[in-house]
Write a structure and sequence with these properties.
By secondary structure, the chain is an all-alpha fold. The chain has one domain. It contains ten helices and no strands. Helix 1 crosses helix 5, helix 3 packs antiparallel against helix 5 and helix 3 packs antiparallel against helix 9. The longest helix has about 30 residues. The radius of gyration is 18 Å and the shape is globular. The two termini are about 20 Å apart.
Length: about 240
């Protein structure tokens, strides 16, 4: 039942034009545009080496947080979650199916963006296991935040808030603009955000060839634990 629901969730996500815009089109355009045109000073080295890890982090956020929050919020509003909760599929099974759908979509995103970045001249380094662990921790953190928003706010408020957060974190989360541009104090505060931790952690591994960035992983883990616990406590199915 979980596998069938996960397959259904994935098909619905991939058929949704707005979801595809968030999960595929916007990250791809940002990667190609900012790698090809000197718009933002990304520091020493090639722009694609800075941008590719940040865009991978953005892809995780767009799927696990923004897309999931909006879709779940409207499912809740129209009573879809209520009907599914009364089906033989248990509520934990529904959440597991949604999580599996997010992971499948992220795999497709990572493959697509990696291929595009390689074509643009990206040469990643580092341990793939560290990258995988960072992506999983980021997915857990953003999923918790997305479900918390979708389960507590009205659908229209979730739509507005999720898109606003997406735009704000795109600009101030170290995705396309280095955190150093925001000054010493600003970069320290922004560095505690999950998108910043995921972007910086992936950048340390894939660009600099560093080992596991434990500080960034720790930030993501804290966000994941707090967000998932809050979502589990405050999520309303109706």
């Amino acid at each position: 039942m979980i596998a069938a629901q996960a397959a259904l969730e994935t098909r619905m996500l991939l058929r949704n034009g707005e979801q595809l815009l968030l999960t595929v089109v916007i990250p791809t355009l940002l990667l190609v545009l900012f790698s090809s045109v000197d718009i933002v000073d990304t520091g020493a080295g090639r722009a694609v080496d800075f941008l590719a890890p940040g865009v991978l982090a953005l892809a995780v956020m767009s799927t696990a947080f923004t897309g999931q929050a909006i879709a779940t919020g409207f499912e809740r509003r129209y009573g879809v979650l209520k009907r599914l909760a009364s089906s033989p599929l248990p509520r934990w099974g529904l959440m597991a199916a949604k999580t599996a759908s997010v992971l499948v979509t992220e795999v497709l995103q990572v493959i697509l963006l990696t291929v595009i970045a390689l074509v643009l001249g990206w040469h990643p380094h580092g341990n793939p296991a560290a990258v995988l662990l960072l992506l999983l921790a980021g997915t857990a953190a953003f999923s918790g935040l997305g479900l918390l928003m979708a389960g507590t706010l009205k659908a229209e408020a979730t739509l507005a808030a999720a898109n606003l957060v997406f735009l704000l974190l795109l600009v101030g989360g170290g995705v396309i603009v280095p955190l150093e541009k925001f000054g010493a104090a600003g970069s320290q505060v922004l560095g505690l955000l999950p998108i910043s931790a995921l972007s910086d952690g992936l950048r340390e591994v894939l660009r600099d060839g560093a080992g596991m960035p434990w500080a960034d992983l720790g930030i993501l883990t804290v966000w994941a634990v707090v967000a998932l616990a809050a979502a589990g406590k405050f999520f309303r199915w109706e």
